[in-house]
Amino acid sequence: MSAKVANQAYSMKTRDKKVRGFTLIEVMVVVAIIATLVSVGLTSLFKARRTAAEKTCIGNLMQLELPRPLQDALDAAGMSYALYDRVPENPSLTSVEAGLQHFRSQGC
Q: Crossing angle of helices 24-65/95-105, nearest 10°?
């Protein structure tokens, strides 16, 4: 067997055994797909977080406003019963009104 034929045989054997790697375009496509999925996921996560904050705010405001009709009914009947404590810093405000101001100042 001549050297040329031996080299060709060796070259064919090694060519079959070579592990084919990924091309640059394949890697870039995979990275683009992953980036798209991450951006969609983060967008929905931020939207869910914003919605949860809004629901919490609405719940807090509802809890503060819930006893107000009872207080109004007691006042109309001439019964003085303080459902709301007065705020020491501003005696004209009840704790509910102060709480409402606090929540509204935070963007609720």
A: 160
